[in-house]
Structure prediction request, 291 residues.
Amino acid sequence: MAFESMEEWLRSSADKNISTAEAVIQEDMSDRGVSREETWTQMSRMWEAMRSSEQDYDRTLRSHSGLVGGAAGQMEDYLNTCHPLCGETMGKVIMRALRLGESNACMKRIVAAPTAGACGVLPAVLVTAAEQDGYSDDQMTEALFTAAGIGQIIAARAYIAGAMGGCQAEIGSASSMAAGALVFLRGGSPEQMADAAAIALKNLLGLVCDPVAGLVEVPCVKRNVIGAVNAMAAADMALAGIRSTIPADQVFDAMKEIGDQMNSSLRETAEGGLAATAAGRAVSERLRENL
Ligand code: SF4
Prediction:
């Protein structure tokens, strides 16, 4: 059985005196009956795919609807010519989250982690961390196992799909996974990893899923940015020793409760929120007329 709580995951790692990433590797081997080499190779390919899909961004591409494309190119130009308010590192995180979100909308290859809509969050922070701190591919693969451990527990206790739990379940989960992975990379304790995951998701609780015209474009691409930036802030807070008053497992449970209470118009049906604004409806109408 895979881990069903953060508490169980941390206790198992401590009892066996292994890292949280190693505990996920061992659980995966036993769950799926695969060898260490198989599980490792699979995850290292994910890392490679994340990195290459980020590098393969094409600023000339536009989505079929015309709503999305080119924003990451604008961000790159801005980074090259101005001093971003957020600083260079965060500027790159923003650019990379846009790259992946736009690539998804333009039907290019991405890694759905945990979903295609939230595909920009993990690569944005992890590619930037690897570039900045010089982590090896093996370290990045271990970080992805940590992220996977968090995502799997969220999926077991709550949701990772916008149609089920709103955008908190997609961007919120991705942000939580990314925050924990960053703490792992920086050598933080398992408790700090859990705190980062909890803080990141807490900050995005209640976020609704309201894609304009039902397309994973607006507001999805830019929400990847906020998920990535939030992950960086949550990881830094946890590494500074700031605790989450609400433990991670209870945050995940709260996300489920909030998702269950969310009106269906705010769960990917494109009937509420931004999709129901005058501008959102106008886009929808225009796309229908052009069919
Ligand atoms: S708004 Fe909905 S479709 Fe878009 S990223 Fe969030 S959960 Fe996914």
